[in-house]
Amino acid sequence: MSEINLHGVAAASKRAVIEATGARAILHHDLAAIASVSTEETTRAAELMRRHWRVLDAIGETATVVPVRFGTVLASEQAVVEEFLEPLHEDLAAQLAALDGKVQLTVKGTYDEQALMRAIVERSPRVAALRERVRSLPQAASHFERIQLGGLVAAEVEQDRERDAAWLLERLEGLAVATSREQAGGLDGAVNAAFLVERARVDEFGAAVSDAAEHLAGRVQLRCLGPLPPYSFATDQAVGAWA
User: Fold this and answer.
1) What is the pLDDT along the chain (243 residues), one digit of tens a residue?
2) CA 8/CA 231 separation, integer angstroms
3) Do residues 6 and 84 make contact, with C-beta atoms less than 8 angstroms apart?
């Protein structure tokens, strides 16, 4: 038994671009659902997820895409039209128009843990004193102090994170149409933000990230991922009922 996995939506005029990736273009008026067929032999989650991102990234290199949340599955091509493209046509068309000519650039920053800890100890006498106390005690006798130290350090890191993220966003937001800030992962996560950028300004945006990376060198390592389809800017109204 087979089923249809939805990856996203593009303009019907991009049918050739879609099919060049090996995906199917399911047409309805001016829209094309980007889809692929899976069977019981090809239902491994990891494989389906890789195909989902690979197809969207490939199409997004040259065409505007409204990504659909991974795991969106319908029974047949007819169901894709009747249950997805037709009832959501107005919203999907509006999203395509709003995202036309734009891509996502994701900026992630990671702290140098040693440099971060040195800075925290230097500016916080309380952290410095508790750290020395923890070092002077046997591990079994310092359980409470270690918990307390961890909480103090986490609070200090959060202050750094807010300050550094605000500084970075101030430098980059003017080059973007929209911004979506997400939670930076782990204690060493500094920033995780997605920017919706005009294709014509991708190089300009990249240069600004490079300048920021130079300014933060030694404290934060920045990475700029993309151009990508606008994963963070497709609204849940189009996909929420299908995931």
Assistant:
1) 578 999 999 999 999 999 999 999 999 999 999 999 876 655 677 788 888 999 999 999 999 999 998 888 998 999 999 999 999 999 999 999 999 999 999 999 999 888 877 877 778 778 777 777 777 777 766 677 778 777 887 788 888 888 989 999 999 999 999 999 988 877 788 999 999 999 999 999 999 999 999 999 988 999 999 999 999 998 854 443 333
2) 10
3) yes
Q: How many CA atoms lie within 13 A of 185 on its CB side?
A: 2
Torsion of CA 17, 20, 23, 29, to 10 degrees: 30
pTM greater than 0.70: yes
Distance, in Å, from the CA atom of 128 to the CA atom of 126, rounded to the nearest integer, reads 5
Cα–Cα distance between 197 and 119 in angstroms, integer? 34
| Domain architecture of the chain: domains with CATH | 3-100 (no CATH), 103-231 (3.30.70)
Block residue for tokens 């970075």: 168
Centre a 10 Å sphere on the Cβ of residue 51 and count the other Cβ atoms it contains.
19
Closest by Cα among 159, 183, 161 to 232: 183
What the block records as the tokens of 161 is 């994170």
